[in-house]
């Protein structure tokens, strides 16, 4: 069956032992970091992979020929083989003699004469138990320098319940109603071993040749163009396609698709002509006519950015039906997307995968510890380049990710127990460090540093340190970084900490100086993070002042000084006392800034003037975001923070509004058990009503995504605050469902209307929703029921509704509600004071019966006690929980630690409330009086 031979590959030696460098110790960004490494006695120098998939039958057969170089004398060869892959046969031949044999033959060049292949005895070949390894024991020891050809035959399953390794999936041909199968690969991060035996580590970059069998109706696409086709020896109407040899690449860059898809091809001009082919099922291909333009734009900008042409002779992009992977597959020269991903508005997703063609495929991380920094740099370059030709796609980049990491890294315990959140947050932070460096050493120097890096590491592997070194060398060459400072040192101070700093600026107006201090930024109380006094960063101090705004604003992002891991510095030669200063404009670095009250007041007054737009919009947003978050953390008077919102009355730029909604939500939840909350809701309505009415109910033709998003957010928060037109609109839509002859057949009401009805509507409307959950048909999508249950529990303002839900699920033990439903209800009730207060009262009133109900369900008991006690934030709440603790001190059982932790947290929150609630309420009272409003 297997007749195609393998020519001798050039021997590419990977000297693993000589690589002892270590990058910045980031995080265990992937479980693969701790994976057992292959021995370094052998390394591959080339593969020829033969595959014959049978998609209808769900399996594949294959053979691989691996040219293996002996690095150190050994009698073993160890490869990666997935447990699901069955190896049928192993055969080894020595193609080139060892160094010792050459020396004995008095030869210095192995190509001076022909050496006949010599069979190598295989003593044993078997999988290693409980490890994805295949151990081949040779009958004799082979010396270093020898070149072996290892041939292995194998077979495996084509799974269609996952999009990993070599998988299959299908779709229905709309014309013939016939099921059409296709086969594809997704090798990241280490799934090549499930397709063929290999050295499945990123450092082993070698050339590949693929020979793939297919039916005559199908076509095969791999990393490289087709070289030859010949008929199959055994199967009628089948052919073998052999493809051109690839450049050196990692196993995770392998890409193969076998399908009956239709295609559109466009030749993109540049340093060289690149044929780009878009593939999809025939009835979907017309939906992708604009994809070629997006790819062309990305290619043009990225080739200019790297000053290295696209590395391969072609590019194929697939829209796969039923593609189940969480992210696109960025195989080298073969990109796989979900159909919906290629149809979305904007270009960032495509550009992000295009960046991997250089950074990841052309230059590859040596090991998974550097995959994190690779991912962060890819994200930054993708955003940077997308903004060059499609700014609407990233209308508020990088603020959206920056605000998220501010919240995550300011928690007492970042990430919780979620490794995924840790990976995403750290990667996002590193992306922002690249942005900070782009500003502080200058865009030209940054790009030249990236070009220096890619030229040095193309067709090779790299460590994270190589990126920082290239930037350091370029910055020194451009006189942007004095000796002995290194970019590595700057970056490490940020990347190695699961925290961010806050810089506090206290001005001396008479001496025209300012004292700057840095410390850990913490929002959650108590601020008792261990060793926080030891945390210090390299912080660039970029400053603008009021005088800089008199002409057209152009940001000089060169730092006036660096805080070189110094706790405190003195800034001199500041403007006079009539002028404000702004540190870290445009969020150059990922850190908030606090000021003395006078500087804040000058900023607030200026923002309320008609000169407001002289401050760039990102900086306006930053000032607002910093003020509110510092007040939330207890570091700034709330009156000062609320003053910073006054300019929003006249602000219409959606980028300035972007942080407002998160802040309204955070503060609103924090104070919703106090008398100030009703006044705060009235203030929110006064703030948002004119904005929403000006934007109108419906999108306007040609409006930006940002404006559409602003309209939607405004409506959501107006509804939450009791905006009458919104409530009536929601109730009218909901009435259609209530009046329908068969309400359990489906929900005709948009999700945006459900919560306002359950929050502000009647008990009858809420009961109707409860009945729909109880009678929910098994034939409908379960997520619809989940959403309905979440809103039933989480939205109501009325304690009677919550009581009703708790009675029916816990006391009456209605069989339509599972333990998971009850767990969900408890979680949702923590979202509002009405929810957790009602739950607390219910627990206290029905303590004995609930204890019996949950006697054998400690997880539900612990969750209920947590949800009922942990969220209080005032003295009244502290008194309630303390009384319960005294009453039932010996009865909490497994939840004993919960109540003790709750009391500790509530005491901290009570201090905050005692200090801030009177200030917030006094400010709101004054604002209402000034605007002639009564609440």
From TrEMBL:
Its main location: membrane. Gene3D superfamilies: 1.25.50.20, 2.60.40.1910, Neutral Protease Domain 2, tricorn interacting facor f3 domain. GO terms for molecular function: metallopeptidase activity; zinc ion binding. Keywords: Glycoprotein, GPI-anchor, Hydrolase, Lipoprotein, Membrane, Metal-binding, Metalloprotease, Protease, Signal, Zinc. It is a lipid-anchor; GPI-anchor. Its cofactor is Zn(2+). The keyword Protease applies. InterPro entries: Aminopeptidase_N-like_N (IPR045357), Aminopeptidase_N-like_N_sf (IPR042097), ERAP1-like_C_dom (IPR024571), Peptidase_M1 (IPR001930), Peptidase_M1_aminopeptidases (IPR050344), Peptidase_M1_dom (IPR014782), Peptidase_M4/M1_CTD_sf (IPR027268). Belongs to the peptidase M1 family. This is Aminopeptidase. It comes from Phyllotreta striolata.
């Amino acid at each position: 069956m297997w007749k195609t031979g393998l020519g001798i590959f050039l021997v590419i030696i990977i000297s693993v032992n000589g690589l002892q460098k270590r990058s910045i110790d980031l995080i265990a960004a992937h479980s693969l970091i701790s994976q057992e490494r292959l021995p370094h006695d052998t390394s591959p120098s080339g593969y020829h992979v033969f595959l014959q998939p049978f998609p209808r039958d769900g399996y594949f057969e294959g053979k691989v020929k691996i040219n293996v170089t002996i690095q150190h004398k050994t009698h073993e060869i160890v490869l990666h083989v997935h447990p699901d892959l069955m190896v049928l046969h192993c055969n080894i031949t020595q193609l080139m003699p060892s160094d010792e044999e050459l020396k004995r033959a008095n030869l210095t060049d192995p190509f001076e004469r022909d050496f006949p292949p010599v069979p190598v005895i295989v003593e044993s070949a078997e999988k290693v138990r409980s490890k994805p390894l295949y151990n081949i024991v040779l009958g004799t020891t082979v010396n270093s320098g020898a070149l072996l050809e290892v041939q292995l035959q194998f077979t495996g399953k084509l799974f269609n319940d996952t999009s990993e390794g070599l998988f299959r999936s299908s779709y229905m041909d709309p014309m013939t109603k016939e099921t059409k199968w296709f086969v594809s690969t997704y090798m990241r991060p280490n799934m090549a071993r499930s397709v063929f035996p290999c050295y499945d580590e990123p450092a082993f970059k070698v050339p590949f040749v693929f020979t793939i069998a297919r039916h005559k109706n199908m076509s095969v696409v791999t990393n490289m163009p087709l070289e030859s086709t010949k008929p199959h020896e055994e199967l009628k109407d089948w052919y073998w396609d052999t493809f051109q040899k690839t450049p050196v690449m990692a196993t995770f860059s392998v890409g193969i698709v076998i399908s009956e898809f239709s295609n559109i091809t466009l030749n993109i001009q540049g340093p060289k002509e690149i044929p780009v082919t878009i593939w999809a099922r025939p009835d979907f291909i017309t939906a992708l006519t604009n994809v070629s333009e997006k790819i062309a734009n990305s290619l043009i900008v990225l080739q200019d950015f790297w000053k290295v042409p696209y590395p391969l002779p072609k590019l194929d992009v697939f829209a796969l039906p039923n593609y189940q992977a969480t992210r696109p597959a960025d195989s080298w020269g073969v990109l796989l997307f979900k159909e919906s991903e290629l149809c979305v508005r904007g270009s960032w997703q495509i550009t992000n995968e295009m960046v991997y063609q250089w950074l990841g495929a052309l230059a590859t991380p040596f090991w998974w510890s550097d995959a994190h920094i690779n991912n962060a740099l890819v994200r930054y370059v993708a955003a940077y380049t997308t903004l060059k030709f499609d700014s609407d796609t990233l209308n508020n980049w990088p603020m959206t990710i920056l605000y998220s990491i501010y919240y995550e890294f300011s928690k007492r315990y970042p990430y919780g127990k979620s490794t995924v959140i840790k990976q995403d947050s750290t990667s996002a932070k590193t992306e922002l460090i690249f942005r900070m460096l782009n500003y502080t050493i200058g865009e030209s120097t940054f790009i030249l540093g990236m070009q220096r890096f890619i030229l040095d590491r193309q067709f090779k592997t790299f460590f994270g340190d190589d990126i920082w070194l290239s930037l350091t060398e370029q910055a020194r060459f451009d006189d942007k970084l004095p000796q002995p400072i290194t970019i590595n040192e700057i970056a490490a101070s940020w990347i190695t900490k699961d925290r961010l700093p806050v810089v506090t600026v206290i001005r001396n107006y008479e001496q025209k100086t300012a004292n700057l201090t840095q410390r850990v930024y913490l929002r959650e109380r108590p601020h008792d993070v261990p060793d926080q006094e030891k945390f210090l960063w390299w912080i660039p101090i970029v400053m603008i002042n009021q005088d800089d705004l008199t002409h057209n604003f152009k940001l000089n992002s060169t730092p006036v000084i660096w805080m070189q891991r110094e706790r405190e510095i003195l800034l001199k030669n500041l403007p006079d006392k009539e002028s404000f200063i702004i540190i870290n404009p445009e969020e150059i670095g990922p850190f908030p800034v606090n000021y003395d009250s006078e500087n804040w007041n000058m900023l607030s007054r200026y923002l309320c003037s008609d000169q407001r737009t002289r401050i760039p919009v990102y900086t306006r947003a930053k000032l607002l975001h910093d003020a509110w978050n510092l007040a939330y953390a207890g570091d700034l008077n709330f009156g000062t923070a609320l003053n910073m919102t006054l300019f929003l009355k006249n602000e219409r730029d959606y980028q300035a509004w972007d942080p407002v909604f998160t802040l309204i939500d955070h503060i609103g939840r924090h104070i919703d058990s106090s008398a100030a909350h009703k006044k705060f809701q009235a203030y929110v309505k006064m703030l948002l009503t004119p904005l929403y009415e000006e934007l109108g109910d419906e999108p306007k033709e040609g409006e930006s995504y940002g404006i559409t998003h602003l309209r939607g957010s405004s409506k959501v928060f107006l509804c939450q605050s009791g905006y009458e037109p919104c409530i009536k609109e929601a109730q009218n839509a909901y009435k259609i469902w209530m009046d329908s002859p068969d309400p359990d057949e489906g929900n005709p009401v948009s999700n945006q209307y459900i919560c306002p009805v359950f929050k502000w509507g009647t008990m009858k409307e809420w009961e109707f929703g409860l009945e729909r959950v109880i009678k929910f048909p098994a034939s409908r999508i379960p997520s619809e029921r989940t959403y309905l249950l979440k809103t039933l529990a989480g939205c109501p303002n009325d304690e009677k509704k919550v009581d009703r839900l708790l009675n029916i699920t816990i006391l009456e033990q209605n069989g339509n509600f599972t333990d998971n439903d009850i767990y969900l209800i408890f979680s949702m009730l923590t979202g509002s004071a009405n929810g957790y207060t009602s739950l607390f009262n219910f627990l206290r009133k029905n303590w004995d019966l609930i204890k019996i109900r949950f006697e054998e369900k400690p997880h539900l008991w612990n969750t209920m006690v947590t949800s009922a006690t942990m969220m209080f934030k005032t003295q009244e709440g502290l008194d309630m929980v303390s009384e319960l603790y005294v009453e039932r001190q010996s009865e909490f059982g497994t939840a004993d630690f919960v109540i003790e932790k709750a009391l500790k947290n509530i005491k901290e929150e009570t201090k905050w409330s005692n200090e801030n609630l009177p200030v917030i309420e006094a400010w709101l009272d004054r604002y209402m009086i000034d605007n002639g409003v009564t609440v």
